[in-house]
Design a protein that fits this description.
The complex is a heterodimer of chains A (92) and B (384).
Chain A (H helix, E strand, L loop, with lengths): L1 E5 L13 E5 L7 H11 L3 H5 L10 E5 L2 E2 L13 E5 L5
Chain B lengths: L18 E8 L2 E8 L6 E6 L4 E7 L7 E6 L6 E5 L7 E2 L16 E7 L8 E6 L2 E5 L6 E3 L1 H4 L4 H5 L12 E6 L7 E5 L3 E5 L7 E2 L20 E7 L2 E9 L2 E6 L6 E2 L12 E6 L7 E5 L17 E4 L7 E3 L17 E3 L7 E4 L5 E4 L7 E4 L5 E6 L1
Antiparallel strand pairs in B: 1-2, 1-28, 2-3, 4-5, 5-6, 6-7, 8-9, 9-10, 10-11, 12-13, 13-14, 14-15, 16-17, 17-18, 18-19, 20-21, 21-22, 22-23, 24-25, 25-26, 26-27
The chains are: A alpha+beta (92), B mainly beta (384).
């Protein structure tokens, strides 16, 4: 199953500048974590910038599945759902 | 800059480098300042990693061309960038410093970078916030936690929780490798104190006797101190200088009790500051840059009058060096990695400020000149 993933500008250096990429998942009903693992396989290094070593999304990273916020990496991704990663502005 | 000639220390003749480059790590990226052997004119270049918070950048003295930079952004996790061509091109570490999965700990940022021993090319150490020690064996491409410290059964007792300590997170810093023995190391922590290992980091013990900890009910503790910066004296790794939250100290090994060397500082200035910078050739000489640690700890130059202080007698006395610096209304300070020296026979001394200025002296602090201004908040300056 392929999913379209929107990439925020701070992470586009990992994807050759692409704002949207397609991630292939072996499972027909992947979880959000599976999609992020697929993203890492295609673009090494990207996952650690948004997901910490304990497996949690970093505080300023937000993920939308279609129009809903989803921070549970075990949540299933509906077929054809669009995924949007947002890097919330922070700092100053 | 020089109005009176500064003398080269007696002893072995020191060759002047052909050029000096300052690596300036800031809250918004990395800049460099480069000069020739005359040190009269400087060229500013950068930024690299614009928008990244760069806590430290270091050159590998073993090959003279590998640079590492510890970086993160406000929203993204921490990483290390590496260059093997002296900064022309950069690549991100394949495996940045990260605590073990299941440990419950998360690296917020890599804070301190130290090249390993001369006999171990490719080895680097990184100190992080929260406090962890990491090692790379391949020039900074892949990092692993030093289990002897990160998983030490006493670590939590030594350091407290990951949220304790310094306002922007407790930091492991001042990773020192004994140039005579790769297995002999020191580390210091803003929440924990100074620790020593004699087996390459497999085990550690506290080394804080004589260091004050005024913020503790029992000020004479074995650990729990707040060293701000600890460095080897020039050419003498048996001598350590320490700028601490609670004073200035010197340790001459094999002794294990630090000597208070802050009593010679003027009372109106005090003995609080971040950096401790030994002279590059004279083990009795070092610089500090005091800040205001009174009342609510403003952490700015005392009375808005910045000045370096230098000792030439291993800390017995300190002399104010402010010629050329603002005389009043200058409210910046200098962070623990933001002051350094070059290796010229008559040493150049450099510091970066929280207000984004780089100041330099080519006469060992007798006179100062602003080398760059309007940079972001400066975290670290290294002369390479």
């Amino acid at each position: 199953m392929n999913h379209r993933v929107a990439i925020p500008s701070p992470l586009r250096s990992y994807c050759g500048g692409a704002s949207t990429v397609t991630v292939a998942c072996a499972s027909s009903s992947p979880s959000l974590g599976d999609v992020l693992a697929g993203l890492e396989r295609a673009y090494p290094g990207i996952r650690f910038r948004m997901q910490d070593e304990q497996g949690k999304l970093r505080p300023h990273i937000q993920v939308f599945v279609d129009a809903s916020v989803q921070r549970n990496l075990a949540a299933p991704i509906p077929p054809g759902a669009d995924i949007m990663i947002v890097a919330a502005l922070s700092g100053g | 800059m020089a109005r009176t000639a500064a003398k080269q220390p007696a002893g072995k003749r020191v060759e002047a480098p052909k050029r000096t480059r300052l690596l300036i790590a800031t809250r918004k990226g990395l800049w460099t300042l480069t000069t020739d052997g005359a040190r009269r004119t400087w060229k500013l270049a950068g930024p690299q990693f614009l928008g990244h918070i760069v806590h430290h950048a270091m050159l590998d003295p073993r090959d003279g061309k590998t640079l590492l930079a510890a970086a993160r952004t406000g929203h993204l996790g921490p990483t290390v960038f590496r260059s093997t061509d002296n900064g022309k091109t950069w690549k991100e570490a394949v495996t940045p410093p990260a605590f073990d999965a299941g440990s419950g700990r998360v690296v917020d940022h890599a804070f301190w970078l130290t090249p390993g021993h001369a006999s171990q090319p490719g080895v680097w150490f990184a100190g992080t916030s929260p406090q962890g020690l990491f090692r790379s064996d391949d020039g900074g491409a892949n990092w692993k936690g030093v289990a002897g410290f990160n998983a030490h059964p006493q670590r939590k007792a030594w350091c407290g929780g990951d949220q304790d300590g310094t306002p922007d997170g407790p930091k492991l810093h001042s990773v020192l490798i004994d140039p005579r023995d790769a297995s002999h190391m020191y580390i210091s922590m803003s929440s924990g104190g100074t620790f020593e290992s004699s087996d390459g980091g497999a085990d550690w013990h506290p080394l804080n006797q004589g260091v004050r900890a005024d913020f503790q009910p029992n000020p004479d503790l074995e650990f729990g101190h707040d060293p701000h910066c600890v460095r080897f004296a020039a050419g003498n790794p048996d001598r350590l200088y320490q700028q601490n939250h609670c004073g200035l100290f010197r340790l001459d090994r094999p002794a294990t009790r630090w000597t208070d060397i802050g009593t010679g500082m003027p009372k109106a200035v005090g003995y609080v500051g971040f950096p401790m910078v030994p002279h590059p050739h004279d083990p009795n000489s070092a610089w500090i840059f005091p800040m205001d640690g009174t009342d609510v700890w403003p952490r700015i130059s005392p009375a808005g009058k910045p000045a370096a202080y230098r000792t030439r007698d291993a800390g017995k006395t300190w002399k104010r060096q402010a010629d050329g610096l603002p005389k009043s209304q200058a409210w910046w300070t200098v962070k623990r990695q933001a002051m350094t020296v070059d290796r010229f026979p008559v040493a150049g001394v450099y510091f970066g400020t929280t207000s984004g200025e780089v100041w330099g002296s080519r006469d060992e602090g007798r006179s100062w000149k602003c080398l760059a201004a309007h940079l972001p908040h400066i975290y670290a300056v290294e002369a390479v």
